[in-house]
Amino acid sequence: MRTFLEFEKPVADLQGKVQELRALAEKGDAVAVGDEITKLEAKAGQALADIYAKLTPWQKTQVARHPDRPHFVDYAKRLITDFTPLAGDRKFGEDQAILAGFGRFRGRPVAVMGQEKGHDTESRLRHNFGMARPEGYRKAVRIMELAERFQLPVIALVDTAGAYPGIDAEERGQAEAIARSTEAALGLGTPNVSVIIGEGGSGGAIAIATANRVLMLEHSIYSVISPEGAASILWRDGSRAQDAATNMKITAQDLFRFHVIDEIIPEPMGGAHRDPDAAVEATGKAIEQALASFQGMSETEIKRQRREKFLAIGRSL
Fold it and tell me: Whole-structure pTM over 0.70, yes or no?
C-alpha cells in the first residue's frame, strides 16, 4: 500500500476510487468500467502534477522525510558495484548511522559514504534513524584519508535530521568529530561530490556534505536546524514548524538561488518515492557529470575550486 501525505488526499481519494472500480471489474464486466478507470487515472495524474508544481517548503519537508523515499542503501545498490563497506573508526567502535566503503561508480573506483535511516523498525533502530555519533564521523574521516591516499574521488549521499544529540555522543566529542570531518572534506586533494537525497540537517549533514559540488534532489531540504527545532527556539512553539520552514529557505530552489548548492536534480512526478529507479538514475547521471568536470585537474586546482566555492557563498546576493 502506498503511503499518501496529508496534502496528497485528493490524489489518494481518486486512486481509491480506481481501486474500487478495478475490484468491481474483476467480478463483472470489465468493459463497463474501463473508460471510467481511465478517466479517473488521468484525473489523479493531473491532480498529482498540480500539487507538486506548487509545493510549499513545509510540504517539501514532508516529501523529503517520506518513509518510502530511497535511502543510501538503495543508491549504493544501484550505482556502486563491488561495494566493500568498512566498519569502525579505529578509536571507539562502529556506527551504522553512517555507511562507508569503496567500490566502482560506472567503472571508476571511488570512496562512497552516507547516512542510512533504515526502512523498517528494526533497521531504523540499527541505523539510529541516520543520526550519527562521533565514531560515525571519525569513520568518515578515515574513509576520506584512505581515498586521498589512493587518489580516489569521494561521493557522499546525505540524509539525516542531524547528528545524534545524546549524552554519550557529547561525552565522546560530537562537536569535535563533526568539525574534523568537515575539515577533512574541505582539505581533500581529490574531488568530492555530495548529494542531499532527503534531509540535510545541521552540522550532521555538513560534516560529509562539504564538497566541490553540492547537489540536491528537487524535493529534498538542507538547513542548519529542523523546522520543528527552529520553531521551538524562535517561538517556543514546535507547532509553528510550517512557519519556520517557510522562513528558513531550506528548499533546493532557494539554496540554488543563494549559491549554497550547485545543481538541482529533478525527481519523478510525485517525488522520488514514486519511482526510486528513475530518481537513482538521475542522481547517478548528475554525479557522473560532476566528477567529469574535474578530469585532468591537479590537487592544487581541486582544493582551490572548493575553497573559492565556499568563500563565494553570499557574496553575490
Answer: yes
pLDDT at 36: 77
Q: Is residue 316 part of a domain?
A: no
Residue 115 belongs to domain spanning? 61-311
**What pLDDT was estimated at residue 1?**
63
What's the per-residue H, E or C state across the chain? CCCCCHHHHHHHHHHHHHHHHHHHHHHCCHHHHHHHHHHHHHHHHHHHHHHHCCCCHHHHHHHHCCCCCCCHHHHHHHHEEEEEECCCCCCCCCCCCEEEEEEEECCEEEEEEEECCCCCHHHHHHCHHHCCCHHHHHHHHHHHHHHHHCCCCEEEEEEECCCCCCHHHHHCCHHHHHHHHHHHHHCCCCCEEEEEEEEEEHHHHHHHHCCCEEEEECCCEEECCCHHHHHHHHCCCHHHHHHHHHHHCCEHHHHHHCCCCCEEECCCCCCHHHCHHHHHHHHHHHHHHHHHCCCCCCHHHHHHHHHHHHHCCCCCC
Low-confidence residues in the chain, pLDDT < 50: none
Domain count of the fold of the chain? 2
